[in-house]
Amino acid sequence: MSAAPFAKTPEPPYYAVIFTSRRAADDGAYAQMAERMVALAAQQPGYLGMESARGADGLGITVSYWNSAEAIAAWRANAEHLAAQALGKRSWYEHYEVRVAKVERAYGSQ
Questions:
Q1: Residue 2: per-residue pLDDT
Q2: Residue 30 lies in a domain
Q3: Average pLDDT, whole number, for the chain?
Q4: N or C, which end of the chain is more exposed by having fewer CB within 10 Å?
Q5: C-alpha torsion sign, points 63, 67, 73, 75
Q6: For position 22, what pLDDT does the model report?
Q7: Which of 51, 66, 68, 61 is closest to 98 using CA atoms?
Q8: pLDDT band at 5 (very low <50, low <70, confident <90, very high)
Q9: What pLDDT digit, counting tens, does each position of 44-64 carry?
């Protein structure tokens, strides 16, 4: 996924959606769909940014940041995102977990 290494988030509070997955075999279409979902998420009201990493063993973690629980619910209900989720469940993921957290404190080296 072609996203910046670190999301530029505002001062807390805001929300994080943590998507952890183990990929199954890639049929070649996964990367294209992942790029589309990154672009689509960025167009959604309340979207703040995203960070993503995947290991050689297929385990990946993507964290998307949102300004409200309502923005997360709207993204979850997006028709194109729903179709991508269904395809992921059927074809691309051996297992996945979604966790939603409220960020109350954030700090870093910069």
A1: 46
A2: yes
A3: 92
A4: C
A5: negative
A6: 93
A7: 61
A8: confident
A9: 999 999 999 999 888 999 999
Q: Would you state the pLDDT for residue 32?
A: 92
Residue 5 located in a structural domain: no
Residue 1 lies in a domain: no
Range of the domain at 61: 14-103
Q: Specify the DSSP element, H or E, that contains 31.
A: helix 30-42
Q: Does residue 109 lie within any of the structural domains? A: no
Predicted model pTM: 0.90
What pLDDT, on a 0 to 100 scale, did the predictor assign at position 26? 66
What one-character DSSP code corresponds to residue 13? P
Tally the residues of the chain. Answer: 110
State how far the alpha carbon of 41 is from the alpha carbons of 11, 25, 46, 48, 107, in Å. 20, 24, 9, 9, 24
Q: How many domains does the chain have?
A: 1
Q: How far apart are CA 20 and CA 47, in angstroms?
A: 19
Q: Whole-angstrom Cα distance, residue 67 to residue 42?
A: 13
